[in-house]
Amino acid sequence: MLKTRIITALLLFAAFFSALFYLPLLGWILFATLVAAVAAWEWGALMGLGAWSRLALGAALVLICAAVAAFDPVALGLQGVSDSGSNFSDAAWRLGRWFYLPAAFFWLFVVPLWLRKRWSLPKSALGLAIGLLLILPTWLALVQLRQAGALALIAIMATVWVADTAAYAFGRTLGRHKLAPNISPGKTWEGALGGGVAVIVYGFILSPKLPAVLSDHYAVLLFVLVLLTAISIAGDLFESLLKRQAGLKDSSNILPGHGGVLDRIDSLTSTLPMVALVWLTALN
User: Fold this and answer.
1) Are the beta carbons of 19 and 26 closer than 8 angstroms?
2) Which of 38, 136, 140, 226 is the most buried (most CB within 10 A)?
3) Is the pTM of this model over 0.90?
4) Contacts of 127 (CB under 8 A, 6+ apart)
5) Domain spans of the chain?
6) 77 Ramachandran zone, left/alpha/beta (phi>0; psi -120 to 50)
7) pLDDT for 61-85, tens place per residue?
8) Are 40 and 135 in contact (CB under 8 A)?
């Protein structure tokens, strides 16, 4: 099992870094769309949909992404980007706000209540809408944040990786108090706090490279880093709750040893749209 996990992880990193650094923008958009389509297919499993309905959901996600790209290619960086990037930032904000603001409201206000009440995922149009609210802003953030540079996108995603790694290390060594025993028994408050401290240290190390609104105002930066850590944990717990309610160990078995795409991006679905919202706000 460990060998399988290692091999899969190496292949995943190779595919991701190759796509990020070597594909042109259109190729990266197609790569992100593929990831989003698989995530939508897995979301169908959380809703208890049948095989054909899940395939239709994945195909519909591809069509929606294509429609967004055709409707506003400038907002994705495909057309009309000036050397200063001003055209892109304006268009990206005009489009992105319709995705990121609802996502921010969902993660900041709805998910905490959802986790507290432990609601079930509706097996209806509302359940499909919630899936789109998770997946589409993540897709758009992957596309738009690449405009900041491949290394910048990796640095942003590394925030989640740092939080997860530190939380695991602190939880294993110091964990005594369960964070959400009925949802994810392995998570502890000590791990969450350790992850938060690691993210804060990481963020302040990177602060000279951040927009002035963050690098020049340490209190704002601290607030954003704590918020990102909190919603990263919320994203993880939210998917864990939905899998538990659906009777699934993993969102799928498409990634041997690692489960599914949603298992790998659960924290990114909550953090990337928030980072994109902050980034575009700083640009505008």
Assistant:
1) no
2) 140
3) yes
4) 47, 121
5) 2-75+87-283
6) left
7) 999 999 999 999 999 988 765 444 4
8) yes
